[in-house]
Amino acid sequence: MTMYNDRLIGLAEAQHGLVTRAQVRASGVTDDSWWYRSHGDGWECITRRVARRAGAPRTFQQRVLAAAFDVGPSAYVSHWSAAALWGIPNVGVEPTDLIVVRQGRQTPTSLARIHRPRHLPDPFGASLDGIPVVRPALGRRLRGGWWWLGPWWSWSAPP
């Protein structure tokens, strides 16, 4: 199990201290073995699908990535959460918001609010520090989310 654990630790280091159950399976670890490891042995279970390496810094980036991982590969951080990732100052980051593309599966999560827009321009997503996130230009198209006041660097929070 040490070889698998080393692989998973390396993966977690590249993903803000997180691994998914699917990644664990792909590395050759069985579900039963992982269940025991994720409830001790240097790992903390966040959800059934996401685990955190014990001792990894708890950051905003880790929190939003955990939410995206929990929903699945069709999830992108969006709304105020994405604005904060892009460095927009003075935006609230709670709760975490995710967009799930219509063709993708939607797995319920308690870590974020899920939005399923009818239309998304192409391309709408990007990877920012390994986190799937909507592009800043999408901010003006989301109703009830970001307020567009000009170029992306001049967005502001609602009054």
Beta-strand proportion: 15-25%
Mean pLDDT: 79
| SSE string | HEHHEEHEHEEEE
Q: Tally the helices: what do you get?
A: 5
Q: How many discrete structural domains?
A: 2
Structural class category? alpha+beta
Low-confidence stretches: 141-159
Overview of the structural elements:
By secondary structure, the protein is an alpha+beta fold. The protein folds into two domains: about 50 residues; about 100 residues, no CATH class. The chain contains five helices and eight strands, in the order αβααββαβαββββ. Strand 7 and strand 8 form a beta hairpin. The strands form three sheets. It has a three-stranded antiparallel β-sheet, sandwiched between helices. Strands 4-5-6 form a three-stranded mixed β-sheet. Strands 7-8 form a two-stranded antiparallel ribbon.
Helix/strand layout:
Layout: H1 2-14, E1 18-20, H2 21-26, H3 31-38, E2 43-45, E3 50-53, H4 60-71, E4 75-77, H5 79-85, E5 97-100, E6 113-115, E7 125-128, E8 131-134
Parallel strand pairs: 5-6
Antiparallel strand pairs: 1-3, 2-3, 4-5, 7-8
Give a summary of the structure in a few sentences:
With 159 residues, this protein is α+β, with helices and mostly antiparallel strands. It is built from five helices and eight strands, in the order αβααββαβαββββ. The protein has two domains: 52 residues; 95 residues, no CATH class.
